[in-house]
Every structure is written in structure tokens, then in C-alpha cells.
Design brief:
The structure is a single chain. A three-stranded antiparallel β-sheet has the order 1-3-2. Helices cover 53% and strands 10% of the residues. It folds into two domains: 40 residues, no CATH class; 94 residues, Arc Repressor Mutant, subunit A. Pfam families: HxlR. InterPro entries: HTH_HxlR (IPR002577), WH-like_DNA-bd_sf (IPR036388), WH_DNA-bd_sf (IPR036390). This is Winged helix-turn-helix transcriptional regulator. Keywords: DNA-binding, Transcription, Transcription regulation.
Length: 135
């Protein structure tokens, strides 16, 4: 997305409001909505982050993504597989071994995840500073 839409390119200050056409607004919102539909909820990105450290079995993911239930993890993994972000591999052994790994397509999320992490750190610092001001 063109960063000039949200901020002045000469500084980090918010851009002055500009009158925009409805079609331009929809051209910005539609792909954002599409992305949020795929990554919705509080579990998909943590699952993806857990898998950035390599292929994992269901139980390993469950232990790394604290607070998620097995039922929710199963559903979220199905959604991620359906959207082409995670690959599920079944190895014909006894017992059957099922592993999950990121697909090459999921690499396109790296910049998004890095940006969210940086913003999360910034926001946490902001809130901590606001708490100090209120005290």
C-alpha cells in the first residue's frame, strides 16, 4: 500500500486529509479486508510465527502458542492450509506422523509480521509512558 495514503512522505506526520473518490477508497479497503479475512482472529498470526522456526507437529504448535485449545488450533490450521499459507504433510508410518510447515506463499507475510511486531513494541511503550503520565 502506498504509504502516502496514511502519512506525509516528507515526514512521519499524518497526511492532511485529502478528498478521495469512493472507488479509490474501495481500492484501498478491499485488499485490506481480504487480508484480514485470511488472518482474522487472535491465533493465525501466532501459529504462523511459531512455524517460522520450522516444521512442527500439532502438539509442538499447541505448546508454543499458549492459551489455544486443540479444537481451535485444528480449525485454524485447516483455514491456513485452505488459504495456502501452511502445508500439512502426512507421513505413512506407524503411528501416522502429521507435520505442518509454512508454504513459500507465507513468506509474503514476513514484512507484515515485522511491521506488526515493530508497531506492537511502539504501542506498548506508548501505553507505558501514558500510564506514567497519569500517575
Amino acid at each position: 500500500m502506498d504509504s502516502s495514503i496514511l502519512q506525509d512522505s516528507q515526514s512521519n506526520a499524518p497526511a492532511k486529509p485529502v478528498q478521495r473518490e469512493h472507488s479509490e477508497c474501495m481500492g484501498i479497503l478491499r485488499p485490506i479486508r481480504d487480508a484480514l479475512d485470511v488472518l482474522n482472529g487472535k491465533w493465525k498470526l501466532p501459529i504462523i510465527v511459531a512455524l517460522t522456526f520450522g516444521e512442527k507437529r500439532f502438539g509442538e504448535i499447541s505448546r508454543e502458542v499458549h492459551g489455544i485449545t486443540d479444537r481451535v488450533l485444528s480449525k485454524e490450521l485447516q483455514d491456513l492450509v485452505m488459504n495456502g499459507l501452511v502445508k500439512r504433510t502426512v507421513t505413512d508410518t506407524f503411528p501416522v506422523k502429521v507435520t505442518y510447515a509454512l508454504t513459500p506463499h507465507s513468506e509474503s507475510l514476513q514484512e507484515v509480521i515485522d511491521s506488526l511486531r515493530k508497531w506492537g513494541v511502539l504501542h506498548r511503550t506508548y501505553l507505558q509512558n501514558e500510564d506514567r503520565k497519569a500517575s
